[in-house]
Amino acid sequence: MYLIGIGSMFLIVLTGIFAGQGFALAFSVELADFGAKNYLGRIMSISIVRELGPVLTGLMIAARVASGITAEIGAMKSSNQIDAMTAFGIDPMSKIAVPRLIALIVMVPVLTVFCDAIALAGGWVISIFIAHVSSTMYWAAVKERLVFGNLLIGLLKPVVFSFVIAYIACYKGFTAEGGTKGVGKATTESVVLTSITILIVNFFITKVVFSYLKGYL
Fold first, then answer.
1. Which of 128, 179, 183, 195 is a good FRET partner for 45, with 20 to 30 A between their CA atoms?
2. Which one, of 40, 65, 55, 26, lies nearest residue 206 by Cα?
3. Residue pair 60/10 in contact by the 8 Å Cβ criterion
4. 0.70 exceeded by pTM
5. What are the start-end ranges of the H helices in 130-178?
6. What would the pLDDT profile of 120-147 be if each residue is shown by its tens digit?
7. How confident is the model at residue 214 (pLDDT cuts 50, 70, 90)?
8. Number of helices and strands (H, E) in the chain?
């Protein structure tokens, strides 16, 4: 949990603040054409909590953690450490894969909340100094859209992404073959496959939630 959570904190904060500011700047320019800059907080809240925060966090964790997990397990396999564990009666799955899965399930939602908060704070900076929307109005609009449905989507997605990252990263690590070259190939495939799967799963979760929980959004 420490390596995944605290180790990824700087990356998540950096990604969240600049992504939030970029979104807020783009939205404020478009809303100004319609005289609707007061709705900036609502749009930021919806887009960040539902989509931007979970997806960005998932992709950043996939890039940083999935590659590390695959490389670590692949190196253990290539050096016969996993075979040695099996020979001593230790289940490699429960010893290697399960702790990483649990750590991801706990820390990815936590990091998503941090990313959401930082991104909304970045949008607040843009609203104050560039869009000239008052702080009170911005945060009131943000709070207005923090309803049950949006929060459910924002916390459900990172939990599912945790399973995706853990499963693909561990699978690629345990099936890596061909020595160090095979480990490098498995690591690359792990990051690419995890990122693509996160985007696909994100779409289907959004589709299902909008179909059955539209009244709570």
1. 195
2. 55
3. no
4. yes
5. 135-144, 148-174
6. 999 999 999 988 888 899 999 899 888 8
7. low
8. 10, 0
Contact 53, 155 (CB under 8 A): no
* pLDDT (mean) for 65-69: 91
Residue found under tokens 């690591």: 187
**DSSP string for 28-46:** HHHHHHTT-GGGHHHHHHH
Distance CA 131, CA 110 (A): 30
Tokens representing residue 79 in the block: 């050096």
Residue that is written with structure tokens 């890039």 in the block:
63
133: amino acid identity, one letter:
V
Alpha carbon 155 to its chain's center = 10
Radius of gyration for the alpha carbons in the chain, expressed in angstroms and rounded: 20
Q: Which of 20, 18, 43, 46 lies closest to 30, judged by CA?
A: 43
Residues 6+ apart with CB under 8 A from 51: 202, 206
Q: Per the structure block, which two tokens stand in for 124?
A: 């607040």
Tell me the C-alpha to C-alpha distance, in Å, between residue 189 and each of 42, 101, 172, 193.
38, 19, 8, 6
39-70 b/e (C-beta count within 10 Å ≥ 16 → b): bbbbbbbbbbbbebbbbbbbbbbbebbbbbbb
Paired tokens of 66: 């999935």
Cβ neighbors of 160 (< 8 A, separation 6 or more) are 201, 205
CA distances, 40 to each of 93, 149, 178 (Å) = 47, 20, 53
